[in-house]
Amino acid sequence: MDVLVVNGPNLNSLGTREPEIYGSTTLADVEEGLATQGGAAGLDVACFQSNHEGEIIDKLYEAKRAGAKYVIINPGGFTHTSVALRDALAAVAIPFIEVHISNIHAREEFRRHSLLTDLAVGSIVGLGVYGYTLALDAVINRLGIWA
Known about the structure:
Layout: E1 3-7, H1 19-22, H2 27-40, E2 45-49, H3 53-66, E3 70-74, H4 83-92, E4 96-100, E5 122-125, H5 130-142
Parallel strand pairs: 1-2, 1-3, 3-4, 4-5
Helix pairs in contact: 2-5, 3-4
């Protein structure tokens, strides 16, 4: 895999969960679009979603062993709570872009701080599922690939 796209808790219900906040596009739609976009640039994009913190951490270490060049991650609620996820991202040292479908800075106070942003290459918030497309465009640009 060249790029690992990780989605955290509750993103499996994308498209049906609070569509007024997260829209109606499903996670399968997002993943299909990223695979197509990455393939056009010659990248192997692997997608993973879990509601379990340990599974996400294990997947990051697996990506390190597999030689992944980048991670795109929407950590969901773990954004605000998971020191363990932060430590794993620091330990694997794979450059990553943090994506949030909603604008976390315009939501409840507890959602306004990310434990990951200062480690990230970049952060995309509030642009809906288009944020994933932008993140992969940024990865393609940073890798010097011109599709």
